[in-house]
Structures are given as structure tokens and as C-alpha cells.
Amino acid sequence: MNIGIFDSGIGGMTLLHQALVMLPNESYIFYADTDNAPYGTKSREQVIVLVDRVMQFMTEHDCKAVVIACNTATAAAAEIMRQKYLMPIIGIEPAVKPAIKESHGRRVIVAATPLTVREEKLQNLVRRVDDTHLVDLLALPRLVEFAERGEFVSDEVEQYLRTAFLPYALEDYAELVLGCTHFNYFKDTLRKILPENVHMIDGSEGTVRQLIHVLESNKQLENSIGKVRYFSSGRELKGEQELAYIRQLHERLEKMRKL
């Protein structure tokens, strides 16, 4: 059986890459809903319809668990999907709680898509764990657009990020939460912009740990040679050029994982 991992685009490969590091013997279905990316600028109702369509696809492709590797889709649709589908559904959320713990009383920026920033799920999470009001929320919609066209390092990306962070006295901050899986592709540019005292954190590793816990509880962990099949809005990617680009993305993610 497979583990399904999906996102609105290539951002979810961040979580797939981490899963391949921690669960190398599993087989995966990776689904990037590129025809409908980005999710973060859509309405909640639109996202629910799109996520339901992907969940139906995962059901048809023999998935024993599904990871929603998209903060926006998790916030908008995860609970509704859990009520509809029998398989375990693991969502990802911005790593706000560990960021506050590691900040030691200094400020925290949570960067995410506009819909994630607006959604009640993130607002409630911040209210629950941010007793001393350390957290600021920042929407970075254009980073998803840059990522989807493979523009990870450029003058335009750097200028966009410098402008976005301009209102913040960054010397007062200790943590930057990467609240969208697309944002991990930009760690090198972010590291260039941010002061050394600002640490970057995302939710990928914690989400894979939760996946492992669920599979162990259900006695569904595999100990075989795994494989990955890649889909773009339902179309399987098999062409040499497509697979070469996927390899390049994994290479970049491995580099970013070590930053």
C-alpha cells in the first residue's frame, strides 16, 4: 500500500523529501495539484472542493494514509476530510509552539499564505500557545508563485523578501516559522537576509513523526524497497525531462534541509 502526500504544487515535496529520509522503505504517491495552484489565494470553499478531489484520487490509488503537505489545505479542509474518509489523514501546521519555546522570550514571525494567515485554525493556534504575544503573522503569497516557476534564487526573490521584512526590527526576533512548504526552497535567500540570531523552523519533521506514529499504531510500517510515483493534477509524470526536474528539486531540498 502507498502513503499519499499532496500539496497545491511542488511545496509538498519538502515533506516527501523528509519522509524519504525518515521512512525510506515506504512507497509514496506524490500529488501536486499544479492546475489549481496556488491554494493560498483561494477561498476556503474552493480549497475544500479541490482537497476532496485529491482525496478521492488517493482512495483510488490504494493509500493507507494521506499527508496533507499544505498548511492552507490543512487549515481549510483537514477536519472535513477526516469526517468523510476512513484512512488516517495527517495535516501539517506551522511550527508555532516549538518556535515560541525556542525563542526564549524573543519575538517570532510566522510566514504563511494569505489564506493560512486568515484561517481560524492558525489564529486559534497562536492564541493557544502565545501567552506573551510574541508572534507576528506575515503573508508571503509571491513565494509560492516563485517556487512554482522554479525561481528560487534571483534578484527579484531577494528584493521581494527584503521588502516584506522591512517593517520588522529583525534584531528583536529569534524564530522565523516557515508556515508554507513552498517556503523551504528559499532558505538560502532567507539566510542571506535574516540576522544570524534568527532561526528558521518548519513543520515537516514533526509531521513525518506523526505519520510514523500512526503507521506504527496501525501496524502498517513497511520493511521493503519503496518507490515514488509523481502526479500533477492526476497526470502521472513519467517523461525524462519531468523526472529530471523532480531530481533537481530533491537535490535542492536536501541542500536546504541542511541549512
Rg, nearest Å? 18 Å
Order of helices and strands: EHEHEHEHEHHEHHEHEHEEH
Alpha-beta content class: alpha/beta
Report the major sheet: 6 strands, mixed
Estimate the mean pLDDT confidence. 95
Shape: globular
Strand content is: 15-25%
| Total DSSP helices | 11
Give the beta-strand count: 10
Q: What percent of residues adopt helix (DSSP H or I)? A: 40-55%
Strand order of the largest sheet: 4-3-1-2-9-10
State the end-to-end CA separation. 33 Å
Poorly predicted segments: none
Name a few traits of the molecule.
259 residues, alpha/beta, 6-stranded mixed beta sheet, 4-stranded parallel beta sheet, 47% helix, 19% strand, globular
Q: Could you explain how this protein is built, in words?
A:
It is globular and about 50 Å long. Strand 1 (2-7), helix 1 (13-22) and strand 2 form a beta-alpha-beta unit. It starts with a strand and ends with a helix. It is 47% helix and 19% strand. The chain has 259 residues and is of the alpha/beta class. The chain has 11 helices and 10 strands. The chain has a 6-stranded mixed beta sheet, with helices on both faces. The chain has helices spanning 13-22, 44-60, 71-84, 96-103, 114-118, 120-129, 141-148, 155-165, 187-193, 204-217, 240-257; strands at 2-7, 27-32, 63-68, 89-91, 107-112, 135-139, 173-178, 199-202, 228-232, 235-236.
